[in-house]
Amino acid sequence: xxxxxxxxxxxxxxxxxxxxxxxxxxxxxxxxxxxxxxxxxxxxxxxxxxxxxxxxxxxxxxxxxxxxxxxxxxxxxxxxxxxxxxxxxxxxxxxxxxxxxxxxxxxxxxxxxxxxxxxxxxxxxxxxxxxxxxxxxxxxxxxxxxxxxxxxxxxxxxxxxxxxxxxxxxxxxxxxxxxxxxxxxxxxxxxxxxxxxxxxxxxxxxxxxxxxxxxxxxxxxxxxxxxxxxxxxxxxxxxxxxxxxxxxxxxxxxxxxxxxxxxxxxxxxxxxxxxxxxxxxxxxxxxxxxxxxxxxxxxxxxxxxxxxxxxxxxxxxxxxxxxxxxxxxxxxxxxxxxxxxxxxxxxxxxxxxxxxxxxxxxxxxxxxxxxxxxxxxxxxxxxxxxxxxxxxxxxxxxxxxxxxxxxxxxxxxxxxxxxxxxxxxxxxxxxxxxxxxxxxxxxxxxxxxxxxxxxxxxxxxxxxxxxxxxxxxxxxxxxxxxxxxxxxxxxxxxxxxxxxxxxxxxxxxxxxxx
Length: 514
Prior knowledge:
By secondary structure, the protein is α/β, with parallel strands linked by helices. It has helices at 19-36, 78-92, 102-116, 130-144, 163-167, 213-229, 251-260, 278-286, 312-320, 339-342, 355-372, 376-395, 410-414, 431-443, 470-481, 486-489, 491-512; strands spanning 66-68, 123-127, 149-154, 196-201, 233-239, 265-271, 290-294, 306-310, 400-402, 416-421, 450-458, 461-467. Strand 6 (265-271), helix 8 and strand 7 (290-294) form a beta-alpha-beta unit.
């Protein structure tokens, strides 16, 4: 389908806006908040009273709130909000000196993502969320397969609740990204889900302790060999970082799996948390893997900004094979796709463009560009210092402890620190109790509004999570670049950690009185 062109006639750059145009400009900036919550499913719809979405975050800056919740979601930053406002002005041509056609506007967003991630040769397809990206990737790979397809997920309980349905080619919610009501659990129109099987591989033992990496890799290879013998094609997932900071399936094991049948085994790298290095992503693309990223976890952009990075050989193969299932049109707009693929998908897109998705990526890219400009060595040092500060505060806070054996190198690399809470009875907090404490950190009046990562079930326990974001790393790096030693550059982060742990102690004291 050829998408329609959208172009607003440029205003002369030397012509000052009239009062009416100034009013429209003000209204445009006021619309940014509304648009940042549009073009997704129910999870990002703002509550009509407190304006928070289901993650508890806002689409307006809230610099007075303390956030270590990048494993779940973050408020939009002041800089990201401002960047989105400027981008919207440029698009609707309200006083902008560089107005742009909407197809070019989206092309610039996709190109910026590729450049920031050091993979300008890859094609970028935007997706409303990581779950939407999973659904889109499955539909793309189903075009290449002439056999039944097995989709091997890694720890779906530590990725996203809708991922297993999406991986099976089914609607994972009752509302698609472009606003169409759908039946949750029903197969996408045009996709034969009878030919798709989903298998999963755990990264933890039943009691919640991490499995040995060699065992995870061995299980994957055995599964791939078994599916090939069944005359099925295979999609292998590499989980770069789970909700709790663990990885699942090494890249080496994935490359070995592909070598078993290069035309029948393909790899999707789930880098939605974006806690790997840019060099890792570049190598994934070079290895022919599709990489799924988001701008809304570690990058700390507004929730619901996903993208698929597609190596050129695969992009060419996708363009040459058949049509995408018609049901995918409810999730993806024409300008989410690069021009090289857009007209070759055989799909009636649900809209020409998803403006909310574009603005969320503009806001996220503001932080992504800052972070990726920092060399990986300083990034690693700052991340290790952050984890050290968090662990110190966990150790000196009564009633909480670092989760089990989650003490490996991944803590410093991923900066996700899961912790358990002990209730007055001596038992570990249940999932419901952990979620209540998580909510109290935001809603209880005894201190600043604090955001932590939502509760996650790990075997018989549940954990909350404290995590650094790209914004935290970039801010420390910026102060170090100005000549401050690391301990001085960390003081603002330490102050926020102190405030968050002080609030947590107050909440726990309150819980113990109930």
